[in-house]
Amino acid sequence: MVRGTLTDTYVAAIQHELVDLPADTTRVGVVRQPTPWFHAAVDENIPALGPPTDLLESMRDVEEDMKMQGLCEEGAHNAAWDQVGFGEAYREYLESDDEAQAAVAALDDRLSSGESLALVCFENTEKKRCHRTILGEFLEAEA
């Protein structure tokens, strides 16, 4: 069996048709607390693969402080990511949380069975760092 492809994109790219996903790709949201309009852009959402709430809140707090200091939105986001150790904390969450581990295993099984998946979140990774990049690397390492 050929392993399915794994890609990622952001919700606005789907809404504004800025991304060309193959027709058979399942759009999997990886958002802890999706908005109602987010659901319309994805086929399903797996909240357990969104960053933990406390990590998101620390990131938002630091990001807001940095914006107040005059950094642009993207600059504040990326600087806050570094300051709170977001990448390391999210990797640790994927490795230690039972729900996250089960969700990663389920996605890996789907990829192994030939299903193609696109991980979807809010951030445009051309401008901002996003947990879905780490999740994608994590899934590729599982293969």
Order of helices and strands: EHEHEHHHHEH
Q: Portion of residues in helices? A: 40-55%
- Our estimate of the beta-strand percent is 5-15%
Q: Structural class, please?
A: alpha/beta
Number of helices: 7
Report the biggest beta sheet as strand number plus sense, adding barrel if it closes: 4 strands, parallel
Shape: globular
Widest sheet: strand ordering: 1-4-2-3
- Overall mean pLDDT stands at 94
How does this model look, in words?
By secondary structure, the chain is α/β, with parallel strands linked by helices. The chain has one domain (6-142). The chain has helices at residues 11-15, 36-41, 53-68, 73-84, 86-96, 98-112, 131-142; strands at 6-10, 25-29, 44-45, 116-121. Strands 1-4-2-3 form a four-stranded parallel β-sheet. α5 (86-96) crosses α7.
Features:
single chain; 143 residues; alpha/beta
